[in-house]
Amino acid sequence: MENKVTREIFPRDARKSYGLVELMKGSAPIVKKEPEDTVYTWPHLIMIELICALLVTAGLIILVQFVHAPLRSLADPSTTPNPMRAPWYFLGLQELLVYFDPWYAGVVLPGMIIVGLMTFPYVDTNPKGVGYYTFSERKFAVFNYSFGFALWWVTIVIGTYLRGLDWQWYWPWSDHLVHMNPALVTLVPLHIVFVNLLHVSKDVGKAICDVLFFAYFAIGMAIPYFFMRKFYDSMGGARYFVFMIFFLSMMGVGLKIVLRLLFNIKYIVVTPWINV
Amino acid sequence: MLENLKEKLTKSQVFRSIFRHGFPDNDMNRAYVVFSNVFLHIHPVKVRRSALRMRYTFCLGGITLFLFIMLTVTGIWLMFYYTPYTGLAYNNIQDLQFVIFGGNLMRDLHRFAAHGMVLFVWLHMTRVFMTGAYKAPREFNWVVGVLLLVMTLILSWTGYLLPWDQLAYWAVTVGTKMASYTPFIGQNGPWGAQLGFLPTNDIMFMLIGGTVVGQNALIRFYVLHCVVLPLFVTVALAVHFWRIRKDGFSGPL
């Protein structure tokens, strides 16, 4: 096929007719195409796929010689196992139930993860880094993906190995058969911290929390808009808004986990309907 | 003599009626075999040598597809021995474990291929992300891929209930309980009760066909696991592969 490169190498003369022929090593003539480095799918690609399938089959058959599908006792609605573990791929969500109420950790957040994943190709306007592995050309994108999935996998590891009876924190060396004393930790909503610290009324404390919550999103939205203009301009308003909502929510999950683990904060925002 | 036999075989009416071309040991037949075969024609006839490089795709998408096929085969095999009835399901699994020839092997393969599929979908997604393969013009195929990830997770989770043991029962009880916390349409969720949702009419009730996980939940999960979701996945896979061909392969060109 004639393209820019061939036109450059062989500039056409309008007065002449051409028959461009090149001698190549190969087993068949290629017509109306530039010389290319291709091979037939059969057998080259088919063989790779076949070998891959055989290796996976062999690997699985070997694996199941050593580990077996579990089967506990018959389902019994009157006996609740303790701790009760979700399948491993949902343990991240189950672990998030420690930090958030179920409507958020179990419903809204998974929905946001799914929709957020779908927005990737529409908010990532960086044209570089297609078709090869690179970190330096798309640092921010790779950082975001890695941060999100680090959160996912770390919570899975915590849920699998560091949670015991009553979903309390158990180190591998602690006695997994003894109940932890949950009274050791008192969780408080953030506005109580302000009430005790600043000696204000509960309502003022709540108002401070509401302001802080919205300030997190507002300032988060504003910083790149004012100080990283190139980043904002490359995306445009709509993409920027969508991306930042998901980005700040993801960072917010990390922030809430830190607040909960270090300062025993139960909620940031308390309303009559929802608590976050 | 062997050559003679091969010649006779590949030229026979029966062989030709099936394959339409000779054995793919020359370029013409190698092209024919790919574009005249329904299973192979998802490939292009020729691929660039650089696209075969293992260190680009690591075969992750292919392995995921293969695990799905393996799950279909072992799953259908298991269906012959399984009754989606709370009074029998657990006994059926015990039979598979202790009585039926190959039962353990098939159940173990099904279980670990399922874990593997979840893992490899994620690995494949990570590969696609790290190579920027989701960027234009392949945006939509990424979206289809995310849907496939979600369906893989739901498939895995619906299958989790079927053995009807303590592990299955409570994992699904906790999981479906989450549905009742859905805002607006779950009885425990924000604004759910205010909108008139009760344990007997909210989204969780719809999901498990009752207020607790029981026979209705089992049959629902069974149908979703064995029929509905595999069908959806198959259709989404067809779109996924079609779009690779239409939008082009992202790899080194």
UniProtKB/TrEMBL annotation, chain B:
> Which Pfam families does the entry link to?
Cytochrome_B
Q: What keywords does the record list, in alphabetical order?
A: Membrane, Transmembrane, Transmembrane helix
- Kindly indicate whether the keyword Transmembrane belongs to this entry: yes
GO biological process terms, alphabetically, are: respiratory electron transport chain
InterPro entries reported in the protein's UniProt record: Cyt_b/b6_N, Cytb/b6-like_sf, Di-haem_cyt_TM
Report the residue ranges that make up the Cytochrome b/b6 N-terminal region profile domain in this protein.
1-253
Q: Name one GO molecular function term.
A: oxidoreductase activity
Q: Where are the transmembrane segments?
A: 56-82, 112-130, 142-162, 222-242
Can you quote a single GO CC term? membrane
**Designated name of the protein:** Putative cytochrome b/b6
Gene name in the database record = bc1
